[in-house]
Specification:
Blueprint lengths: L8 E3 L7 H6 L4 E4 L15 H12 L3 E5 L4 H8 L5 E3 L8 H10 L6 E5 L2 H10 L3 E5 L8 H19 L12
Length: 175
């Protein structure tokens, strides 16, 4: 059961995920979370660094869909200037948003990776939907109300993974 929370890969940041490596592994699409994955949950616009990363993904022919549990105005405000697809109110870890993103990108499951900062939504949802999952360290040390609850459960799962040697990383923002 807990193995459903185990990501295929983990990085400190999305910026450690190299588009050239993704492309070399046959990846043509990314389904990514927004809050605390791309920017801090309380930052409304993409940073210059995120804009550059999205441009680099595009140069490598990699499509991106932002799938967020946040509301429509938050997600559209962020994704529109990036000219990228988005799914708001995704209800992750349910698989509907993941399947919708795959359908819109017209890609096979093995051509898509799911990137996010939460085990209970991004990794679990991506794994249950059959995608390759990548966990990143949350950008901010703070979270919205519901995410704070999830983080308490997540810390226990991460501790179990570390004890079992299934995951080792720098949880620099874990408190």
């Amino acid at each position: 059961m807990l193995n459903n929370f185990l990501p295929n890969e983990h990085y400190s940041s999305v910026f450690d995920i190299k588009p050239s490596d993704l492309k070399a592994n046959g990846v043509k699409g990314i389904i990514t979370d927004l809050d605390n994955t791309l920017v801090a949950w309380d930052v409304k616009d993409a940073t210059d660094e995120i804009i550059d990363w999205f441009n680099l993904l595009s140069e490598h022919g990699i499509q991106v869909t932002i799938a967020s549990n946040n509301n429509e105005s938050r997600v559209r405000l962020f994704s529109k200037p990036l000219d990228t697809r988005s799914i708001h109110s995704a209800r992750k870890p349910l698989s509907k948003a993941f399947k919708k993103a795959q359908k819109e990108m017209k890609l096979e499951k093995d051509e898509i990776v799911v990137i996010g900062d939460q085990l209970l939504t991004d990794v679990l949802g991506g794994n249950l939907a059959g995608f390759h999952t990548i966990l990143v360290v949350p950008i901010a040390q703070t979270d919205g109300f519901f995410t704070r609850f999830n983080r308490k459960i997540e810390r226990r799962i991460l501790d179990w993974m570390e004890r079992k040697g299934k995951l080792t990383w720098d949880r620099r923002n874990d408190s």
